[in-house]
Automatic annotation (TrEMBL):
InterPro entries according to UniProt: Na/K-Atpase_Interacting (IPR008516)
UniProt similarity note: Belongs to the NKAIN family.
Full protein name: Sodium/potassium-transporting ATPase subunit beta-1-interacting protein
UniProt subunit comment: Interacts with atp1b1 C-terminus.
Keywords: Cell membrane, Glycoprotein, Membrane, Transmembrane, Transmembrane helix
UniProt lineage: Eukaryota, Metazoa, Chordata, Craniata, Vertebrata
Spans through the membrane: 34-55, 62-86, 147-166
Recorded topology in the membrane: Multi-pass membrane protein
Length: 207
């Protein structure tokens, strides 16, 4: 019963991770954030692999999923530090998120709740094919939305890591127990079989 509860809980966590990752992937595509897009894609593949391992009782897949979650926590911690500009990190270094292919920032910068976007006409600081805008009136700044999204990812990853380790341990114990029982049956003591036939002995008579 415990194993079933652990598997069901892990499947629920993986499903929430999948939904959160797909939602994040959509907004990263809209903002041309190529580094997060690549990381989200790898995360989606790892979560699917973890779900497959949970359903098919493959503890090695769960170990891979758990190891990936450690990396995923590290990546989202970097995202939080990046948007909060911890240490030497700065949001002005856009190439970290876009691989230096565009000047786009987070999609939430212009589309956050309550944000009012005003274009700046005749600006001389804008490169070709770009425009300068001012954003005001946001109920929540875009960097805090990104931080909140990463915090949710970290929370789900921590729960997923704990349950992945637990379920993989249960799977491994069941596999070891199965091997032991099989070995006992193969090499166990077998009592001698009683023969139902009488052995005939030759009879010699004096002639």
């Amino acid at each position: 019963m415990g194993k079933c509860d652990g598997r069901c809980t892990l499947l629920v966590i993986c499903s929430l991770q999948l939904v959160a990752a797909l939602q994040r992937q959509v907004f990263d595509f809209l903002g041309y954030q190529w580094a997060p897009i690549l990381a989200n894609f790898l995360h989606i593949m790892a979560v699917i692999l973890g779900m497959f391992g949970t359903v098919q009782f493959r503890f090695r897949y769960l170990i891979f999923y758990a190891v990936w979650l450690v990396l995923w926590v590290g990546w989202n911690s970097f995202i939080i530090c990046f948007y909060l500009e911890v240490g030497n990190l700065s949001q002005d270094r856009d190439f970290l998120m876009t691989f230096n292919t565009s000047l786009h920032r987070s999609w939430w910068m212009e589309h956050g709740p309550g944000c009012l976007v005003t274009p700046v006409l005749d600006s001389h600081i804008a490169p070709d094919d770009h425009h300068v805008i001012t954003v005001s009136g946001c109920l929540l700044d875009y960097q805090y939305i990104e931080v909140l999204s990463s915090a949710i990812q970290i929370l789900l990853a921590l729960f997923g890591f704990v349950y992945a380790c637990y379920v993989s341990k249960v799977f491994q114990d069941d596999e070891d127990s199965f091997d032991f029982i099989g070995g006992f049956d193969s090499y166990g003591y077998q009592p001698p079989q009683k023969s139902s036939h009488l052995q005939l002995q030759p009879l010699y008579t004096a002639g």
